[in-house]
Task: structure prediction
Amino acid sequence: MNQNSSKETQEDALKVAKSIQKQGQTKEQTKLIAQGIEKGISEYKKQQKAKARERDKQRKQQLKIKNTAGDNDSDEQSEQDEFQSPNKNAMFIVLPWGLLIMSWFLFVLYFTR
Result:
């Protein structure tokens, strides 16, 4: 199989080729089918990487435009969001413990009377 492809891609291609193997098909034919599948997987991965690079370039360009425009309001808003999220997370951590302590307190109070 192609030496440029990863072992994982080669194994996946061979697995797919074996899963669609017809009765009476030779090992060489299965190997050729696996090579074709591997080539398709590799091509798909290349396309996805190229798309991801393009999206990343556009995102960086948009950030650069925002930063050069002097948009301080969005920076302050993102900083405020960062500071607010730990408080929300802390509430979700404290809530179950508070309910547990309150339930034990009420349990003890109920049985001591």
Q: What stands out?
A: The mean pLDDT is 81.
